[in-house]
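2024-03-11 09:14:02 INFO receiving multi-entity request
2024-03-11 09:14:02 INFO entity count = two
2024-03-11 09:14:03 INFO echoing inputs for audit
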Amino acid sequence: MDFIIEAVVKAIKELYQTDIAAKDINLQETRKEFEGQVTLVTFPYTKLSRKGPEQTGTEIGEYLQNNVPEISAFNVIKGFLNISFADSFWLGKLHDEILADDFAVGKPNGKKVMVEYSSPNTNKPLHLGHIRNNLLGFSVAQILAAAGYEVIKTNLVNDRGIHICKSMLAWREFGEGETPESSGLKGDHLAGKYYVWFDKAYKQQILELVEEGQTEEEAKKNAPLIKEAQLMLQKWEAGDEDTINLWKTMNGWVYAGFAETYKTLGVEFDKYYYESNTYLLGKDIIEEGLEKGVFFRKDDGSVWIDLTADGLDQKLVLRADGTSVYITQDLGTAQLKYGDYKMDESIYVVGNEQDYHFKVLFLILQKLGKEWARGLYHLSYGMVDLPSGKMKSREGTVVDADDLMADMFNTAAETTEAMGKVDGFSEEDKNKLYRTIGMGALKYFLLKVDPKKRLLFDPKESIDFQGHTGPYIQFTHARIKSVLKKAGYNPTESKSETTELDELERELIVTLNKYPQTISDAAASFSPAIIANYIYDLAKIYTRFYHEKPIMLAEEENQKQFRLQLSAASAKVISKGMNLLGIDVPERM
RNA sequence: GGUCUCAUAGCUCAGCUGGAUAGAGCAACAGAUUUCUAAUCUGUCGGUCACAGGUUCGAAUCCUGUUGAGAUCACCA
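2024-03-11 09:21:47 INFO inference complete, emitting structure
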């Protein structure tokens, strides 16, 4: 629509002898109740024209109609100039752009972006919160790729630390050699089981010590189990063979479990980083910061940065004993990642509970003079809450990722079978379909909401399959495919001489035409929700068209072919858009 | 207490850098299938955009304050 903006610039220059910048021109979609497709708000130009908004609109409208051949009509209502494009213009869009193979295929923009997401702890299985993270990360990566970026998907695995030692210790003490094979438990769930055991036993010990007269704080430090875990961590850091072997074994189980969950989720990574390899990084950056005077050392030897001038606090960056804290590692890892890929931008998909951490992290890197720090972005998403509040593993309110997905598949199977929709499907096809629909419902449910907002999930109310949902969109797609098949639609041979559009057809083309811009918008704000809502809009408009314009019963072949072309274009955009969300669309359902 | 986020229909959410009468879905109610898949469609009901000021020709959107909810402020990660 750039040519309209240019034309408006010219119009204003000629009519009112004033230069205005193209970016200051505000075009918007015409509301449905008015004639036209694009609207220019004329209030801002009344000062230039020294006339009322209606007259200004009429003058600009007349100029545009006389000078822009694509414009067929205009009308002015109050301060709104509604512009209509000729049907030939929209038909040209359909045939030359939308139906072309390379529609909305982003041209490489020469930029490299890293998307870090998932980043699990290896001491317990994934839950619903992780699902949101994984789906967001994967989808944002897809969207950026579609927008022309070269994308590197990374996973920084938190595979060491006191929490890992807890499950290791519990397994060694109470596990009796249990393995995933012997127990039939998925590896990550097995590790999680011992993590919970540890927590329980530890709590018990604290309770006992408190009864013996210690304060709770003392008890937490003195409980034999936590001391044992800390000892284990020290041994791990010292490279003790038994400890390392145990760690490798249990982490191996967890990785196998995660791999399965990732596969079901449909997410993947180009590069894994492990904290066991990176936790010592960052100390050289501390040195660098001390030399540059960005950091300072306190008497006890600990190193700090003073961010009070930036409205933040003083922040510890290295402990008095010379060991790293979380941010030390992150400083080092950021440097490592940049060294590996030299990416222009780097997106951290991490929950908003870490807003402060990332603010500090990025600020420190900037203060250290790292040019690339300007490309860092924290994609801060809201927590997934239950009606009862936060998910808490201790209270057993965690919605387990594997359980939830299994539930979704079952619900999809029941619903589909109850509707008798799978006649003629093989067992294999049925199962594939149930998974497609189940995951479609789950993914759409999580991705349609603005990432920044917290998200409410009620386990008692299963995720809908009707209305504004993934399955609705999948159904729309399947329906189109079914008609195309029945009609024997052939994209290369299909011809239509249609020259006039009715309102619904025009609206459909206008909506299809918005797809490339929607990708740009979604990429600019890292928001799959923008794609999700767009596709729903498209599916809804298509469905209305579908109901009102019978394709097979079209009065003439020309008309039928045109409707088929519109249908094919809609199916294509639905499918591509859903793909950006990581959601498959079935041919039949 | 400091800092940061959020508040739109009974519920879950849209509403792009300020623009026309604030939109969907669910729920409720009334309809639509001799016709391409009814996981669908059409219609009805439902709003003091938390509250109060301000800026503006114009505010759900920007600013200030109030109330409410959440997060964070560890030599945890």
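2024-03-11 09:21:48 INFO post-check: The mean pLDDT of chain A is 93.
2024-03-11 09:21:48 INFO post-check: Chain A has 22 helices and 14 strands.
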